[in-house]
Amino acid sequence: MGVRLVAWGVGLALVAASLGSSTSAAPPDPLVSVWYRGRPAGVPHAEDLAELRDAGFSGVTWPVSSTVGMAELTRLAEQAGLAVVLRPDDKPLTPLSALKPGDRPTLLALPAAMIAPIAWRAVGHGARVLSLDAGQAEGAGLTDPATGKRAGWVVVAAAMARQFRVNGALIGELGVMPPVLFERPPPPTLDVVLLEARKSWVVVATNAGGTRIRAVVRLPHDVPYAIWLNLLNGATLSMLAEPTGPKWNLDLEAYAARVYVIDKTLR
Q1: Helices 46-54 + 70-80 axis angle, to 10
Q2: CA nearest 194: which of 109, 252, 240, 259?
Q3: Does the pLDDT at position 204 exceed 80?
Q4: What distance in Å separates the CA atoms of residue 213 and residue 262, rounded to the nearest whole number?
Q5: CA-CA distance, 10 to 103, in Å (whole number)?
Q6: In a 3-state reduction of DSSP, which class is residue 195?
Q7: What CA–CA distance (Å, rounded) separates 109 from 106?
Q8: Longest dimension (CA), the chain
Q9: 119's torsion region: left (phi>0), alpha (psi -120 to 50) or beta?
Q10: Which has the minimum average pLDDT: 7-16, 27-36, 132-141?
Q11: SS3 label, residue 162
Q12: What are the structural domains of the chain?
């Protein structure tokens, strides 16, 4: 199986073509990747890529400026079964910029508590390829330099990578619906979006703040009120059935993310 290259911008199409791959205007396959800059910078190593793969990630993000090592990185990634994401260094996501992320944003790996709410918020607003950056100039970046142990963010990010593998078809189909309604203006740390796939409705709710949030959310009449499944932990949710549509008494803990899905055929 050939390596899959996920290019960033029109200019990178030429880079991908020079490596024997092609790009298209089609949306990218959902993917969680980890920034890797080589060891030393610009020199990729098979053992680093194997470490990323074994940790549960499906891709590696390589700086497009490191053209010397790009061909070797592509070859090694193919052997490791990893997709290659070519990216420029840019500003990482914040809770605010995650509302307009583009489809291939970078998210800082620390602090670990912020990964889920910012990442899923970005997905709710169109991101399909997420690159986690531990901020380390060399190596796979999965080890905490201060302790020598596996960094705390890895477990959270790998869980998200697993969700992208299992539910990639669903995530790839998601289209944004009109904004949901709140009975009272929500705090700026709360974001709730309704999304639509061919056979499902999906609601992504994220709290990027350090305090619990309670809010009343109203969904359109065509959306079923029960029973929703949280993809992240398997919990179920029943909303209140009202003539105007489902009413959701949302209670969201600090730094939380919930991704609920329901079949369109259910009423």
Answers
A1: 40
A2: 259
A3: yes
A4: 23
A5: 14
A6: strand
A7: 9
A8: 62
A9: alpha
A10: 7-16
A11: helix
A12: 5-172 (no CATH), 175-263 (2.60.40.1180)
